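Allow me, if you will, to draw on your knowledge of protein folds for a short while. I have a record of one protein: its chain in single-letter code and its fold written as discrete structure tokens. The full record is reproduced below for your convenience:
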Amino acid sequence: MSPTEQRAGRTSNGARSTVTKAVIPAAGLGTRFLPATKAMPKEMLPIVDKPAIQYVVEEAANAGMDDVLIITGRNKDNLVNHFDGVPELEYTLQRKGDDGKLDKVHESSELAEVHFLRQGQPLGLGHAVGRARKHVGDESFAVLLGDDLIDARDPLLSRMIEVHDRDEVTVVALMEVPPESIHLYGCAAVEPTADDDVVRITALVEKPSAAEAPSNLAVIGRYVLRAEIFDLIDQLEPGRGGEYQLTDALNGLAAGRGERPVYGVIFTGRRYDTGDRADWIKANLLLGVDHDELGPELTDWVLGFTDRLRAAGGAAE
């Protein structure tokens, strides 16, 4: 039995998941990483020894989602290739008896059943999610944004699915950020619930100033959505830049235009923003020092480099 068959429909702790489909929008151009992304999708930029997109698919699979739909755009063939088999490479490694590297090659193609769909035109996150309607059908599903990596040691999706199942609601991931940073995110107006880590979302404000923000709870790139979201996406009007925003559809649900409300799960674990160049470098270092093989060497190097930076700063002073 393959790892996909063993994992299908089950979370990392073995419990059966009710949400078995994940949608990963990956049609962006990655302009903040030019020229690195001129010929390579930003989702294929490596974090230590795996492309960023693989971490996202692993997260979905570990939360019990064995059916993953990646929404792509032009020049994204590398994404398709990464999750496909590579017979020539596999044969070469097999002949050499290099089982360790062969396992790594097989790993990405055995995580889940990975499907691809072209967005067609870059008309925003709401449009990208709406393209998944025929694939998802009437089932609830998860949306994972590739720019947000959630550390596997701090599971988030499983908690979101738990809240979704218990209360039959759409669930959005939230994280506290400093007030001076809230203008970089969507921000949630919330009401408390009986659970300390769960709130009811009454409104979402896109990138407010610190003075206008209703809270310091930022929306991060994880959603567990009921299928009713598609009807609200269909009713969206284009916003800034002619794009259709998922936030606007979620606001409709929060305002009572759907059958069920919107809840938020407040995440306090480790998150890496790989859509920012500096944070992408930090993610490589933070995950690199915890890597089984590379960790000790990198830790020694980082400590030594820190000492050199301090010495240089002291000399400059």
Notes: Residues 1-8 have pLDDT under 50 and may be disordered. The first strand starts at residue 21 and ends at 26. The chain is about 35% helix and 20% strand. The CA atoms of residues 59 and 116 lie 18 Å apart.
